[in-house]
Automatic annotation (TrEMBL), chain B:
Residues 611-630 are annotated as: Disordered. It comes from the Bacteria. GTP binds at residues 35-40, 151-154. One of its GO terms (molecular function) is ribosome binding. It is a peripheral membrane protein. It catalyses: GTP + H2O = GDP + phosphate + H(+). This is Elongation factor 4. It comes from Brachybacterium endophyticum. Belongs to the GTP-binding elongation factor family. LepA subfamily. Belongs to the TRAFAC class translation factor GTPase superfamily. Classic translation factor GTPase family. LepA subfamily. Residues 23-204 form the Tr-type G domain. GO terms for biological process: positive regulation of translation.
Amino acid sequence: MSAVAPAAAPTAGGHVGSRDLSVYIHVPFCAVRCGYCDFNTYTATELGGGGSQREYPANAMREMDLTVADDAAHGVTYDRVSTVFFGGGTPTLLPADDLVAMLGHLRSLVPFAEDVEVTTEANPDSVTPESLRTLVDGGVTRVSFGMQSAVRSVLATLDRTHDPERVPQAVAWAREAGLSVSLDLIYGTPGETLEDVETSVRSALACGVDHLSTYSLIIEGNTAMARRLRHGEIAAPDPDDMADKYEMIDDLAVADGLGWYEVSNFARTPEQRCRHNLAYWRGADWWGIGPGAHRHRRGMRAWNVKHPSRYAGLLARDELPVQESEQLSEHDRLLERIMLELRIVDGLAVAEIPEQTRGMLAVHRDRGHLDATALADGRAVLTREGRLLADAVIRDLVP
Amino acid sequence: MPVTPRITAEEARDIQPASTPSQCIRNFCIIAHIDHGKSTLADRMLQLTGVVEERAMRAQYLDRMDIERERGITVKSQAVRMPWQVDGENFALNMIDTPGHVDFTYEVSRSLAACEGAILLVDAAQGIEAQTLANLYLAMENDLTIIPVLNKIDLPGAEPEKYAAEIGQLVGVEPDEVLRVSGKTGMGVPELLDHVVRTLPAPTGDADGPCRAMIFDSVYDTYRGVVTYVRVFDGELSARERIEMLSTGAEHDLLELGVISPEPIPTKGLGPGEVGYLITGVKDVRQSKVGDTVTSSRRGADEPLPGYDEPKPMVYSGLFPIDGSDYPVLRDALDKLKLNDAALNYEPETSTALGFGFRVGFLGLLHLEIIRERLEREFDLDLIATAPSVIYKLTMEDGTEVDVLNPSDFPEGKVREIREPITRATLLAPSEFIGAIMDLCQSKRGNLQGMDYLSEDRVELRYTLPLAEIVFDFFDQLKSRTKGYASLDYDVEGEQAADLVKVDMLLQGEPVDAFSAVVHRDQAYHYGVQMAGKLKNLIPRQQFEVPIQAAIGSRIIARENIRAIRKDVLSKCYGGDISRKRKLLEKQKEGKKRMKNIGSVEVPQEAFIAALSSDGGGDSGDKGKDSKKK
């Protein structure tokens, strides 16, 4: 098991000392595993070796302690935490007090910024007005509900347990508690029609959300859904159908006053964009707390062991639960910058794109993938057509 | 299987190659279809005659190349000298193992010419096949004594009565005169060898005249140079003399003379009627040509033995390395294979679609397939082969003559006449498939020349068919329409004028030379539509619409469209996805490098391979090529 790789020399990044930190906390527990999900999550409430849900907050807090020490050992300290994100899994499967306790511990290690953004993912049926109030009191500012669809047959195909009627209710409670609200939708589920997508988007927008994330369903190889696909029980997603659905989502979101700021994300105002995710895409430093979580520190990426029991076991020996790490080369970082920033509404400065591929910018402008006005102003920004072909454009732009 | 030799080493000693009287020599070959058990029968003979010891025995002992063993085909001839005793008298049996395939008919004919007799070996569960029949006729034309034998009589599916009647009728003997053996168990093999001694004529020739020996094969060996297999007809060859090749007048010193038994054994000489090998130190089989006559430099013969011919390639294909930087490897590999293959010829070819490669001439489809497989296997090359084509002879309006070996060189307009090679084809099949075969041959511009029943339910059909149709997808079609029961043999015989046109395939208006084909005018539209449809399915959607067109000159005859791709993006890319996605991106970037660019269209190598092979006839040279068992 490799320990964390040596950090880049403290002078390399030129930002040593005073910087913002984002923190991702992975809560690897779900009530039910969905057929399409390949995330690192577990449904058993009692995992052995100190890996159970009950012991999870203590383990996470222990990992935070070790991470601060590891950063310091590599000459890195942070001024403030600018964003926190509880993801999963289903973070709200833990008692709200546990989430609050973890936040409190983090705050004691690195001070929170004045305008800190603290998001938690939640299932519409795993929150109550009380639990939401507890979260707000503990510092949570934003909630992202896994709505996925408003159509029962689609939810059933996805193995989602919640009642679609619960969504507007949960959103209303969250808004009452003072939270900024985002909804997640999945489109392209086998059997889903264009009308189903329209129903889902309209019903999400009708809740008055500030933010919408829409993911086209990807059937990952090791999921129950992939097995059903292999057995011919469901049809493979059709890319043209996906494109139609994406365009419909974009039309509806724009008509409702939202705008895209990343290929799969829409926000009502620039302030309501998810700053935590933007931190990923802009190459900021972040911690990844929890089993299987990834972190990034000045060009070093590391990811934790996946199983909660192994995770707990390493922490019990005061070891960082790191599975593996990599040090990004200059070339890797360039690739990532193009790959990630081109997906954002601000795009990428033309000067950032290496000369050897810069000629492709005009080609993609002429094919309608890059915005002509923005390009004239020195930025490569995707058009809607270009967003749907982002990977193709990126392949042409990376050296 | 343990077999006790029936002749001792002691007894074998008085039949030395330099001193065996020709009346004690029997030269024979085995005519058999692929799979009918020739190699296994030969194995039993090697054991029974004691030339291979029990512990050294391995299956298909005589097949040297991996390809031969795996595919059960013999590509090069072999000759083995075996001692045998009948009624207390010792004999030398020379068994010449011939290539069993239509592509190598000339080599087969030379091997047959080296023998006085032939064992016609037929699988007792399958009956005779078209190629075997063709070789049988060839043997009969050479006045060989035929010993009909049914093999595999131990198999549960064997029908010896039925097939004995069939063969008896072909050879002109009573069914009960057809011998029955099992190469697997060895049953009947000693009797067969006795029969060989008793019924085959001994070689005749002018023992005292000037030496004339015919080359029936030559093989390049890394350590020894070219090893030449000869049959002495007149006079004798002695070690360390100087010899002459009559076709070229080239002279060489004999470095070694010997017999194969079954490993090379040097001898002092080869007497009249003997079969053996000679080594002169030449490095290229072209200096030791099959069919040529070897004589002594001093007091040598002036008249060559009859039947010599130069090998002529009939089928051409472009071979291109998938990785362009492998071109020098391909060149060196072809140079090496050429040392051992007088029929192989090639010249550099440049394709806009496939880059640098070679236009290679072959004797036929199997030859093509074998060379390609050897290049890929022995030299670790990944190759794309263009669809096989034939030689077209064109007479231009101004009277000049042009030979076209490559469809993409086919000139536009101003052609007075186009002639193409035609074949005489023989098809054998159960009579229920007559209709299916006639339909197929009709659609391939065939002309029925005749039809005969071999037995109640098996029929022989004779056609003339353009060679171009045979090399296109004839075998695959024949196989599928007759459930594999039909077998085919053909001989190129002359040429005919035909109304042929070149069909070009265009991607976004750019012609793709590798896909050009010469087809009959009536089939041009069908070809164009089929190829366009196939390319549409093989070429991935691009960022823009790609028209695919088939054209004769500037006239578009078929069109398909590859619609532009609309979605190529992974929707999620959060913290944990970044490394994975970057690695995926690098992999895709690597994949892009393996694409061939036709204009701005990226075409994966796999698309070329699939478009060129699936019905291009290139995969039909396997051992099931012209028959499939019941």
